[in-house]
Amino acid sequence: MRPHLALIEDEPDFALMCRSYLERAGFVVTWAMDARAGKSVLYEGGVDLAVLDLGLPDGSGLELLRALRSTSRLPVIVVSGRAAEADRVAGLEIGADDYLVKPFSQRELVARIHAVLRRSQPPDAATVLQVGSLRVDTAARQASGGEVHLVLRPKEYALLEMLAAAPGRVFSAAQVLERIWGSSWQQPATVVEHVYRLRGKLADLPPPAPRITTVRGYGYRLDP
Ligand code: CA
């Protein structure tokens, strides 16, 4: 299968050049022009690696990376026009897998992508989250418990993975919207509806099935 890359980059000329080069190198590329679009591509799932520009028109790539790292180990290569050591260190500390300073050759980008993908495979134990009887395989994006395989829509899966990555931690509806829908203008009712459906599906798991607890006035958490 051809690896799927998210290219989050606001400079159209550079992004289009990268995209056509990467496609010729055998990757499937989804291009996002800003942080908001990038977030939805990343949380939609199915991406194997993100190439992330730090200077985006609607926010810093570092912020996007920080939010991503709280729920995901998706390989990320940061590309930046900033060569400053502080930026490079910040990027790597937040959890970038590699850092490239512009200008760089397309060949080098491809070589780095292959290296990072090789390092991130095969999926290690950390890609499986276990909460009670619930097992979330973040590499396969599948959730199951015992013999029961949960059939989840993409957003339901993303919500479940987010909750299962931090059992007991409370997430507000705004945080859920921000992380999973990549926006805060959606209605909180959307979250309520997804939580409701997820609860119904989790109820099919064998004991000890985790449950989603509503914390009144704040949000939701997954309890083992
Ligand atoms: Ca930029």
From TrEMBL:
Q: Which UniProt keywords apply?
A: DNA-binding, Phosphoprotein, Transcription, Transcription regulation
Origin, by domain of life? Answer: Bacteria
* Response regulatory domain: residues covered: 4-117
Q: Which residues form the OmpR/PhoB-type domain?
A: 126-224
CDD domains attached to this UniProt entry = REC_OmpR, trans_reg_C
Instruction: Provide the leader sequence positions.
Output: none
What Gene Ontology molecular function terms does this protein carry? DNA binding
DNA-binding region, as residue ranges, is located at: 126-224
Q: Name one Pfam family in it.
A: Trans_reg_C
Residues with 4-aspartylphosphate modification: 53
PROSITE patterns cross-referenced by the UniProt entry = OMPR_PHOB (PS51755), RESPONSE_REGULATORY (PS50110)
Q: Does the keyword Nucleus apply?
A: no
- Report what the protein is called: DNA-binding response OmpR family regulator
